[in-house]
Amino acid sequence: MWRLLGSLLAPDAAEQDAAWRRAESVLRDSLRPEQYAAYTSRGYVDVASRKFPHRTYRVDGWRPVGVYEYGQFVGAVCIRPRAGLPGPDIVLARKLMIEGAEDEFLRAGNWLSPAWRPAGVTPTVLLLVVLVSPWLLQLRQLGAVGVALSAVLIALPGVFLLWRRQRRAPG
Amino acid sequence: MGVLRILGPSGDTRVAWSPTAPDEVEDVRRRFDEIIREGYLVFELDEVTKDGRQVRTFDPNTAELRAFRPLAGG
Asked: Going by CATH, does the domain composed of B2-68 fall within 2.40.50?
């Protein structure tokens, strides 16, 4: 019954799953083991530019390709297949274009200015800090312990963001 | 043994050949030229680094090729 319901709600799901698995297999065969490990753990592959020293492209299968110079985000390139490809195939196609046809990659893609940022946790964390800070400030009524506790709780998101930035910095 | 994997919406199409089999080589060469005419981009993978290098002519001694339609600005 569940299979019947699934086939009615998403008739192409099985084919899409099979295509995705094939694409994962092609990607695994096309990357070095450490690149594939990075892809499976983080969802992206960092690709060094051959034209621009100190430039790295961060490639995944769904967002624009992030461009980093000296480890800093400087913009992004929006480039996609004309026909639908499974996500892992998009990763591979973008990576190969960067390595073997970087001029064409940059010419074909749309450049997004640094004002565009990849969706991340930073805005969410900062919003949470703003929302809970009045409550945290009330902890001072508990005296010195409350002040120390609220300071620690307010600082925690900042520490988390710093740790995350260091962990994700390319190269 | 060489292999050409052509990426597509429903998964890749795999074409393999032996460089010592002239018939296989000719079949793959025809297929290669056909997809190049259709505008596909083809890349050879370095066997050690796995880095891609764009190729426009078929070399039967290549081990790994990947092909896909060009990407476009999104």
From this structure: no
Q: What is the pLDDT of residues A69-122, one digit of tens each?
A: 999 999 999 999 988 899 999 999 999 999 999 999 999 999 998 776 665 677
Give the domain ranges of chain A. Answer: 2-112, 122-168
Q: Which residues of A touch B (CB under 8 A)?
A: 15, 18-19, 21-23, 26, 29-32, 35, 64, 78-86, 89, 92-97, 99-101, 104-105, 108-110
- Chain B residues inside the 8 Å CB shell of A26: 5, 7, 12, 66
State phi, psi for A75 to the nearest 5 degrees.
Answer: 155, -170
What are A53's two structure tokens? 């020293």
In the numeric block, the tokens 């990426």 are attached to B7
CB burial of residue B30 (10 Å; 0-12, 13-18, 19+): exposed
- DSSP tag of A53: T
Question: Vertex A68, ends A115 and B40: CA angle to 5°?
Answer: 100
